[in-house]
């Protein structure tokens, strides 16, 4: 989701604000085009250290052995690498502390298969994100929705995808954010799958 959101911001004209990263090859191509210091949570100091180690792109980071990352960096960077690989790393529900980005997400106790149930969940997360924006006197212009099945489910295909929408004007209005979030959901929803997690950012 973060990768799609970043791509939508970086290449606004080319993407039209909606980025589909369901294709693994497309994901890796995008990661290879992004310098490692553009990854969320990586500052200039860590970026320089990674560069010295030969880790220059987001793809380089995603392909780095977890044990190496754990040995030389914090658990935060390890988690970032795991997220780049599509591994579920978030707690039951998370509100990101970074004020530049708010994430409202949840892992479902029972997997969701019904579109209306998923839409209701996305509306709830979008509403919470809007509340947090107002509480912090912030506005947003990009809304992303992500959904994913379990990568560990036996005999079930894995599917994880996200879409981002750029609003015409920055907003903190729940109605605008909910509308954008549900439009993003429609762009990535696939019938017949059992979804484990979803969120809005």
From TrEMBL:
Q: Which parts form a coiled-coil structure per UniProt? A: none
Q: List the InterPro entries hit by this protein, alphabetically.
A: DNA/RNA_pol_sf, DNA_pol_Y-fam_lit_finger_sf, DNA_pol_Y-fam_little_finger, DNA_polymerase-Y, PolY_HhH_motif, UmuC
* Alphabetical GO biological process terms: DNA repair; error-prone translesion synthesis; SOS response
GO terms under cellular component: cytosol
User: Transmembrane stretches, by residue range?
Assistant: none
Pfam families membership = IMS_C (PF11799), IMS_HHH (PF11798)
One example GO MF annotation: damaged DNA binding
Q: Start and end of every UmuC domain?
A: 1-43
Which family would the database say this protein is a member of? Belongs to the DNA polymerase type-Y family.
The identity of this protein, by name, is UmuC
Native species = Citrobacter freundii
């Amino acid at each position: 989701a973060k990768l799609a959101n970043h791509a939508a911001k970086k290449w606004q004209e080319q993407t039209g604000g909606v980025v589909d990263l369901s294709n693994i090859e497309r994901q890796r191509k995008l990661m290879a085009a992004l310098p490692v210091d553009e990854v969320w949570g990586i500052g200039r100091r860590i970026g320089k250290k990674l560069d010295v180690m030969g880790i220059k792109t987001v793809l380089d980071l995603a392909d780095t052995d977890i044990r190496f990352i754990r040995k030389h960096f914090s658990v935060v960077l390890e988690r970032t690498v795991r997220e780049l690989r599509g591994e579920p790393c978030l707690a039951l529900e998370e509100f990101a502390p970074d004020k530049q980005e708010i994430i409202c997400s949840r892992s479902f106790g029972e997997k969701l298969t019904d579109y209306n149930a998923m839409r209701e969940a996305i509306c709830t997360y979008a509403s919470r994100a809007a509340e947090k924006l107002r509480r912090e006197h912030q506005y947003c212009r990009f809304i992303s929705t992500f959904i994913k099945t379990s990568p560990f489910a036996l005999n079930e295909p894995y599917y994880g995808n996200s879409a981002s929408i750029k609003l015409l004007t920055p907003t903190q209005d729940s109605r605008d954010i909910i509308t954008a979030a549900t439009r993003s959901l429609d762009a990535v929803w696939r019938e017949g799958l059992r979804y484990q997690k979803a969120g809005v950012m």
